[in-house]
Amino acid sequence: MNVKKLLIAPLLAAAFLSFKPADKKIIVIDAGHGGQDSGATFDKDSEKKIVLDIASKIKEINNSQSKYEVVLTRADDSYPSISERTEKINSLNPEMVISLHMNRTPENETSRNGHEIFVQNSDASKNIADNISKKLGKCSISERNLHILRESKAPAVLVELGFINNTEDRKYLTSPKGQKEIAQKFVEFFNEQ
User: Which pTM value belongs to this model?
Assistant: First the structure.
């Protein structure tokens, strides 16, 4: 009898260890621009770097959460084309897509500040935008015919995090403290879904 127990115990342990829990639901964070496409710039600061830094912090902070897995459309200074981004997004079938960008106006310094959100023509996209706005602070939300919004099958929003040519926005969005605070607010939003 003891021999049977000794043989069965490892088999049960192996079966238990091979059980894989259900995969986490996916949220895609698209850090806009990249590679040769700097996006908006101001002196040495570029949109592509700021949004990648924030996207990376969102992923890092979210790693300790159990509800969602954050997938980035780019994790370095590469430039996947807009079509490549939406192909990747659609192949993942995520719960939502958040594309991060920075605003800029034509003048060198602007008094315009703060974020704004562009949405698809869907209730799900508008709901995501409303909830992000509650986390980041009330802002303008409007529909926009942008490739990532139009071609993503999942609910998607494009968030302009602030104006790169507004001194206060730029200082906050390039600071480690500001980037961490913004990333934390996104992760809090995910956990409330």
Answer: 0.88
